[in-house]
Amino acid sequence: MRVALGVQYDGSAFRGWQTQQAGVRTVQSCLEQALTQVAHHPVRLICAGRTDAGVHGAGQVVHFDTTAVRSTRAWVLGGNANLPEDVSLIWACETPDDFHARFSALARRYRYLIFNHACRSALWRQRATWCYQPLDAARMQEAGQWLAGEHDFSSFRAAECQARHPIREIRELTVQRRGDGVVLDIEANAFLHHMVRNIAGVLMAIGMGDRPTEWAREVLERRDRTQAGVTAAAAGLYLAKVRYPERFGLPETTPVMPDFSG
Which CATH number fits domain 107-239: 3.30.70.660, 1.20.120.550, 3.40.50.150, 3.20.20.240? Predict the structure, then answer.
């Protein structure tokens, strides 16, 4: 039996998603240990997108194969009973054998939060990046549209990125001011390592007035990571949602996302 799960986690105290050497706390290792207790056999997980240290998951999706017979409710409640407070299962679903959390995904959506205030916030400390200089969200929105569509995103990939090619398609990119914050939402068929954080870094420089809006296009066309400026902090990044073909029957859930509203 193949089972898919919806996962949420606060990435602040994790060294990322992927299991590493013994003693390193990762989301994958915590989940596998918890689900192994429910299945009574070792569980190995495949995720929709591996997140870095400090990055949060609001709509992560994983799958695993099992010989254990459990209800979907048992997977969720049993898993949560064995998980720490900063990780939670939100749904479970039996899937066809050809479902794959990573390769079956049609699109992934990320949200990047910027707390934009002269004084740092204790409450948003690990939930958003802090920028004390005023940001012009309209300029950031305008600049971001240069990145929409299918492009070579070499300028926005990390040096250690293991993707076979840098071609990705951004299907939606929006930047909005909400209260004391700026919210960047971006959806693409797939992402390169650090791609969202590097885009956020470029748009923040434009929003502060350090660069013109056309700089986003110039960076994209140069296909050179050294021309793209700083990588924005991990704390503001959330894997918001993963989209799959309807035939797999995964639950239609919209994760609750922080956005500075109110």
Answer: 3.30.70.660
**Which CATH architecture describes the domain 2-104?**
2-Layer Sandwich (3.30)
**pLDDT band at residue 228 under the 50/70/90 scheme:** confident
Q: Is pLDDT of 11 > 90?
A: yes
- Selected catalytic residue, list 10, 52, 65, 152: 52
Q: DSSP of 97-143, one letter per residue? A: TT--TTTT-SEEEEEEEEEESSS--STTTTTSEEE-S---HHHHHHH
- Per residue in 65-115, pLDDT (tens digit) is 999 999 999 999 999 999 999 999 999 999 999 999 999 999 999 999 999
pLDDT of the residue at 37 = 97
152 is catalytic: no
Tokens of 232: 């924005």
d(CA 208, CA 134) in angstroms, rounded, equals 6
Q: Which two tokens stand for residue 214?
A: 């056309």
Structure tokens at 114: 């910027």
Q: Which two tokens stand for residue 260?
A: 């500075």
Domain ranges of the chain: 2-104, 107-239
Q: What is the pTM of this model?
A: 0.94
